[in-house]
From TrEMBL:
Lineage of producing organism: Eukaryota, Fungi, Dikarya, Basidiomycota, Agaricomycotina
InterPro entries xref list: HemK-like, N5-glutamine_MTase, SAM-dependent_MTases_sf
Keyword Cell inner membrane: no
The protein's name: S-adenosyl-L-methionine-dependent methyltransferase
Molecular function terms from GO: protein methyltransferase activity
Length: 258
């Protein structure tokens, strides 16, 4: 605790203890969270970056870095803190990745923008051609008119998402440190937990949305991988899929290759 107090001198130890005893996540109290080599700002109610997300994003960065032959365009759906595209921008070779984060929450859009500034990831511009870039848009990708309402940069080479996937019954059983502090819209994925995956499948089916050889990387609940794999395959456009485990051996990420 002394280290935390020195790092965050504006916080008194009694105040930190009081907030933690009430159930507030430590990441919100301290105001940051390591994510790979980055140290990202955390603010309620935006979802706190998790180690299982960090694990697959680093693995995806390794994959992208080994196959980069031209700059790629990435769309991150439900970007939250911006952790996924920002870590990819940090890890991939300069000038190979231009990313766009979408979120329905103004709090998330502001936090992702602040994190991009902290990580020195610029917004796209003629001067950013030789560096990786990140921009954000406030939008609801569940909307049937999403593609018409948002200034997208389709076709995309990569779609990433850690969408809400918790069912209603699971939501009722969450610890208070999650349900009382993190945004329900970033957690609840509909009665069955699959609403957002179906929306992503509808998007990638649209003509001109993906480039040839595009990849879609989706984080999933630990029992959902096979169902999400089926949802992606049902688009009729997928030629292969992979399921990646997290560090605890649970199926955590579905990759669909188009």
């Amino acid at each position: 605790m002394n280290q935390a107090t020195n790092t965050h001198p504006h916080l008194s130890l009694p105040d930190m203890l009081r907030r933690r005893i009430l159930g507030e996540p430590l990441q919100y109290i301290l105001g940051d969270q390591p994510f790979g080599p980055l140290n990202l700002i955390t603010r309620a109610p935006v979802l706190i970056p998790r180690p299982e997300t960090e694990h697959w994003v680093i693995k995806l960065a390794d994959r992208l870095s080994s196959t980069s032959t031209r700059p790629k365009r990435l769309l991150d759906l439900g970007t939250g803190s911006g952790c996924i595209p920002l870590l990819l921008c940090h890890l991939c070779p300069p000038g190979t990745l231009h990313t766009h984060g979408i979120d329905i929450s103004p709090h998330a859009i502001q936090l992702a923008t602040d994190n991009a500034a902290l990580c020195k990831i610029p917004t796209p511009s003629p001067r950013s051609l030789h560096v990786n870039s990140f921009r954000t848009t406030l939008a609801n990708f569940l909307s049937p008119t999403f593609s018409d309402d948002v200034n997208l940069s389709a076709p995309y080479d990569i779609i990433t998402s850690n969408p809400p996937y918790i069912t209603w019954n699971e939501y009722l059983e969450l610890p208070r440190s999650v349900s009382d502090y993190e945004d329900p819209k970033a957690l609840f994925g509909g009665p069955s937990g699959f609403d957002f995956y179906h929306s992503i499948a509808r998007l990638v089916r649209q003509k001109g949305f993906l480039n040839p050889a595009a990849v879609v990387a989706l984080e999933v609940g630990h029992t959902q991988a096979k169902r999400v794999e089926d949802i992606m395959r049902a688009t009729g456009l997928v030629h292969s899929t992979e399921i990646w485990c997290d560090p605890w051996g649970k199926d955590r990420t579905v990759l669909a290759h188009f």
